[in-house]
Amino acid sequence: MKRLFTISIIMTSAFCANAQNVDKTITLNEVTVKASKVVNKADGMIIYPTDVQKQTSNNGYSILEKLTLANIRIDNISHTITAIDNRGSVQLRVNGIVVGKQEMLALNPKDIVKINFINNPGVRYGESIGYVIDIVIRRSESGYTIGTDLTSALTTLQGDGMVYGKWNKDKGELSLSYDVSGYKTKGSKSKQLAEYTLTDGSIYTIERNDVESLGKSIAHDAKLTYNWSDSTATVFQTSLSGAFNNTPDNYNIKDITDGSRQYQATSREKDKSLSPVLDIYFFRQLTPRQSITANAVGTYISTQTSSYYDEGTPYKYDVDGKTASLLTEVIYENRLKPFTLSTGLNYSYKHTKNDYLGDASALTKTNNNRLYAFAEIKGLLRPLRYTLGAGASYIHYTQNGHRYNFWTFRPKASLTYNINNNMQLSYTYQMWDRVSRIAMTSDAMIRTNSMEWTIGNPDLKPSRDMEHRLQFSYNTNRLQTFVEGYYKQCFKPNMAHYERTDDNKFIYTQINQKEISVLNAMAYVGYWLLPEKLQIAAYGGMNRCFNFGKNYTHCYTSWFYVGSITAYLGHFTLQGYIDNGNRFFEGESKGFSGAYSVLKASYMWRDLQFSLSWANPFDSNHKSYENEILNRNLYKHTIGYSKDSGNLVTLNISWQLSRGNKHKSAEKKINLRDTDNGIMK
Question: Does residue 392 carry a pLDDT above 80?
């Protein structure tokens, strides 16, 4: 109630501001056309940000935050974008190129032409991608952009700073960025109750409650990119980036109540990683209708970790990890008269060597080869738009004597019927394979606490997912709204599996089991109460989970809601956002990721922007997560709290200076990336 009351105050204040209730228009040769801000398409929508949204934003995160995209949580202060519904990760692009924090902070919102929000990715996108946000911009033919972005939490030790520069001359562009971020937290604590059903039928109870904890980390990221483009005919780009992360000696002290015993247990963790990445890209427009695109990415990841936990008896192990991967892709596109044809071939190779030393002694050597071919056509039969595609993949996997070959077929069909200029109805069907994380295919065995162990399963097979999506939308110049039904089935998925041994060890692993299904229904509405001055958005719905394991069935229904309001008051921008988090049930794990609310105020002065945010107001001990394990032999209930996340006040200062004439950059069609080090924790 306190959060809703605070947001209502902002709404009331914004209503009091003077506003002109005039729709934005474009005049062409004495013909006036109202500009539509949202255009629906088969795989999502095209959004044209308003001038006030671009003028009051200072980077890519800032402009996206103002759009309130359905199922996407965007935090401009912490520079994060996540999918609330857990359908997959969010892929960010600028002119088709997959980007990270550096490029998003260096982006000038005034250069934006449009934003492609793809909530229904096609057959050529990578696995586990739930949403794609592609920001199309114009770049300088000659000129430069330099800037810095500094963020500091005022209520805890957390900060982020980046400097960047881009220089353009004729057809070439050189860009360089360096980012350093870090944190030190002491306010994260958890409470846990675990009940173990032993082989003799008795129940053994352990309580684990945090007394003291320390978490600290520092990360350095640098990237150098050269881009050469001849309008949209030829594009060549190469980039070299490096990331160094260090997490030194974090610890956690717990009070353990173990039957009649009471004692303290300490866990310690250290982690250090280094990852250089080389990315080479080429695009060529062969004819006015035909083009070819090629991309190759090489990644090396070196990781050293150390873990110690003395619950019951001391247990310590180290991991020396080395990972090398090569990802390549070639795409051919032909814009034929009845439709556009896209076809391509993707090959990836990944070698992982993780050496577990100490109490968890194991050497994991993994080779993973994947070949994927696809074809897709997009066309228009008025008033029907369609996308038809199919992909086939072959996976060859080996690890320490374990191996498998796996074929899968990925069809997709999407139909969109325009009822009139404002209303449309769309349906999408698709199926694809989902490969387990490399860490869980390891044959290493790690002790979690005095009673539990985690064991990888080298014989895990990929699973197949099938989904249906039905959506009805209605859009006007000021109103965007839709209702959607979504149903997904996962056949033989990698689900949690708990085993109890004869000597009362409780083993967690993953095995291919029967099925997981999800039914989701939601409604969304976004409306300009006062055009160019006051915008509101809200959505919510129901999520129903079905889990069919080999010896259990779990079902769960949850409800979710999100609301936001943004007021544009000249140089000031006020924002309020609230959601109730994400509740889910997967396998035998029932979980909750914390609710989130924030109040923000920003002020733009020339090339500077100052932003102040207050996250989770009036919540001094924020509940960040909750999890229950509902196994017939193991019940475990864990709640995590974070004092650092409650009443979190953060200041952001950004400065950007840009000079030069703009032209539209060619869009990159291929986007490859690898960040998985394959280490099990």
Answer: yes
